[in-house]
Design brief:
The complex is a heterodimer of chains A (341) and B (287).
Chain A: E1 3-8, H1 12-29, H2 31-34, H3 37-62, H4 71-86, H5 92-114, H6 119-139, E2 149-150, H7 153-157, H8 163-190, H9 192-202, H10 204-209, H11 214-240, E3 242-243, H12 245-248, H13 251-265, H14 271-287, H15 292-308, H16 312-321, E4 331-336
Antiparallel strand pairs in A: 1-4, 2-3
Helix pairs in contact in A: 3-8, 3-11, 3-13, 3-14, 4-5, 4-6, 4-11, 5-11, 8-9, 8-11, 13-14, 13-15, 13-16, 14-16
Chain B: H1 2-31, H2 38-56, H3 60-81, H4 92-113, E1 129-132, E2 135-138, H5 139-161, H6 163-173, H7 175-180, H8 185-210, H9 218-232, H10 237-257, H11 262-276
The chains are: A mainly alpha (341), B mainly alpha (287).
Chain lengths: 341, 287
């Protein structure tokens, strides 16, 4: 009996997950034909939160950039959607793309500044940036100043002629965003840069000594994340149709909840944010009647998970079953030949 | 004269910001913990002060006799029961746990006290003023600044002239060796948090007398304190006072130009200093 070793990335579970994922995706794409408008709104919100969570997870879980200021880019993207469509007369579709590009551009000077701070001070530094954005947009009177503004009817109409069409398009945009974000994160992590990123996360000193440019790698992740977060922000406020500085740059809505989602699901895995988003919305839909008490419960759950199961729900599942639905790592398998070859 | 007035008022405001920052600086110095809930703890202290004042009819400054020990005990328990478990090489657990704590505190206060703005009534102290060389200085801001100087001097004295301070410095330099020398670092960390929240209690009550507050304002107080720490330089308490003053002056000068620019000017001053001197003006340790 001879043992053959072979190295593989894929596994039965990952192949099954890919098949089920594809079927599920087709099912979700068809939602406008089977779901009511309340259901579609909820699904759209779930997709956008999942996109935000996956992006935050890429930064904090893989690049070690723990930001509590991603609301800066959510709000920036939202405001760019409004500014570009109202003042520039662009279509909302072009505006979403442009919001992403502008978000990436504004992130460059921001990164140059706050990359001077380390660790937890970096985290609060990002929050300062978000406050600067909030206060600055509150000064722009053409965008409604402190009280905010609504998306003009003409812009909303330009999405689609009737209400059903607009709902469907807005839903597909959200679904498209989450698919693009997860695919981008997955492909990035499988690439050479992703490998460098994980090496930095595991041991910065060792990674640096192997010739990885740590600053540049983190910088690229920060800029790309900012651009994609700005696009998601534009989509969020395309759904809401109204923007104000306090809503756009809310630390609770766009960072605290996102962090809780990632931590509860399992930080540093692609599957974690997906599970975390499902848990978060399950909690929200069942406990929403409790008002603020629901947020208190959420805070306790997050603390409890961090103390008792720091790798989150997916970490527990993976420890038990050795699963990886989005295969990133390589594994060595021993294949036992049945008949002596 | 108006500009001079703005600078003087900003300096006095800086005393309050230094009090926000002192607790933050202390716990970072001792255990490298950055507490996201720090601002919400300041607001909690303000509400405790309000409750004591309205229930017992005490003067707010006398209410400190109750609020300070309550916050200190809360700090010790919080550290021993929760925060000690998060300390280690990874910065994520303390950050996330204190983020969770922040959400719990904010919404807990919202549940108990509602979102209506409140204020602690300090009677004549609020409006009393003295004339100094043509400037009219409020007694309360002067008192706040005096308390800030006294608190920082006191913390400095504890750090460098007492056995407790030696223990703080020992666990800060090397917790493992401090433990080998017979110090119980969990207990020392608890005491550090107790001391930090005692300072926070003073800051919260003074904040509550000075302006109206509601459960949502904690985040901004955390940011002011953080900016004062970074401007002044990590690990330097007198630098933190200087940082608070710079931030306060930037805000009052900003407000002088345009009322909408008050907070923005403070943040911009912070970012400029970060760009020019990343380690702050008077650094003692590197982050």
């Amino acid at each position: 009996m001879s043992a053959l070793y072979h190295v593989t990335r894929s596994s039965k579970a990952a192949q099954l997950a890919a098949v089920f994922g594809a079927i599920g995706l087709i099912f979700l794409i068809a939602a406008p034909w089977w779901a009511g408008s309340a259901m579609m709104r909820l699904l759209g919100e779930i997709f956008l939160y999942l996109a935000l969570a996956s992006l935050w997870n890429l930064m904090a879980g893989y690049a070690g950039l723990v930001s509590v200021g991603q609301q800066a880019f959510v709000g920036f993207g939202g405001y760019m959607l409004f500014a570009v469509t109202i003042a520039g007369g662009l279509s909302p579709f072009a505006a979403i793309g442009l919001a992403g590009i502008l978000g990436g551009l504004i992130a460059v000077p921001v990164a140059l500044l706050i990359f001077r701070l380390r660790g937890a001070y970096f985290a609060i530094g990002t929050w300062v940036i978000a406050e600067v954005f909030r206060l600055s947009f509150a000064q722009v009177s053409s965008l409604g100043g402190g009280s905010g503004s609504s998306l003009p009817v003409a812009v909303v109409r330009s999405l689609a002629a009737n209400k059903d069409g607009r709902e469907a398009i807005s839903y597909w945009l959200a679904l498209g965003a989450v698919v693009v974000v997860i695919a981008a994160v997955y492909l990035f992590l499988r690439s050479r840069n992703g490998l460098a990123l994980m090496a930095i996360r595991d041991n910065e000193l060792a990674a640096g000594s192997l010739g990885i440019d740590i600053w540049r790698t983190k910088f690229v992740v920060y800029i790309v994340t900012a651009a994609l977060t700005s696009m998601v922000g534009a989509l969020i406020f395309l759904q809401k149709l109204r923007i104000s500085p306090d809503a756009a740059f809310s630390v609770n809505d766009w960072t605290a909840f996102v962090i809780f989602i990632v931590v509860i699901g399992g930080i540093g895995t692609i599957e974690g944010p997906i599970i975390g988003t499902l848990v978060f919305f399950a909690l929200r839909e069942t406990l929403a009647d409790l008002g603020t008490a629901y947020l208190i419960i959420l805070g306790f759950v997050a603390i409890f998970v961090m103390l008792k199961a720091p790798k989150g729900v997916w970490g527990l599942i993976r420890a038990r079953f050795d699963l990886q639905l989005f295969p990133l790592g390589y594994r060595v398998l021993k294949r036992i030949q049945k008949k002596g070859a | 004269m108006e500009w001079l007035n703005a600078v003087v008022q900003g300096t006095l405001l800086g005393g309050l910001y230094a009090l926000f920052a002192a607790g933050l600086s202390l716990i970072f110095g001792v255990m490298r913990l950055v507490n996201i809930a720090h601002g919400d703890l300041i607001v909690l202290a303000a509400y405790l002060g309000l409750t004591v004042v309205t229930m017992l009819g005490l003067h707010p400054l006398l209410a400190l006799i109750i609020v300070v020990p309550v916050m200190a005990v809360f700090g010790y328990v919080l550290q021993r029961a929760v925060l000690n478990r998060t300390l280690g090489d990874d910065l994520l657990p303390p950050l996330l746990v204190s983020f969770g704590l922040s959400v719990i505190l904010q919404n807990g206060l919202l549940e108990i006290y509602t979102a209506d703005p409140q204020k602690i009534n300090a009677g004549a102290l609020e409006t009393a003023s003295v004339q100094v060389g043509g400037l009219s200085l409020g007694v309360l801001p002067l008192l706040t600044f005096g308390i800030a100087v006294a608190v920082i001097w006191g913390l400095q004295w504890v750090f460098y002239h007492t056995a407790l301070g030696r223990a703080f410095r020992a666990v800060s330099d090397n917790p493992d060796i401090a433990q080998l020398m017979g110090l119980n670092r969990r207990h020392i960390f608890g005491l550090a948090m107790a001391l930090a929240l005692a300072v926070t209690a003073v800051a919260g009550v003074l904040l509550g007398i000075r302006t109206s507050f509601d459960p949502s304002i904690g985040g901004a107080r955390l940011i002011f304190g953080f900016e004062a720490v970074i401007i002044g330089g990590l690990g330097n308490l007198w630098g933190t006072l200087a940082g608070g003053v710079i931030l306060g002056v930037a805000q009052t000068l900003g407000a002088k130009i345009d009322p909408g620019w008050q907070l923005l000017a403070g943040h911009i001053a912070f970012l400029v200093i970060l760009a020019v001197r990343p380690n702050g003006l008077f650094p003692r340790i590197s982050a």
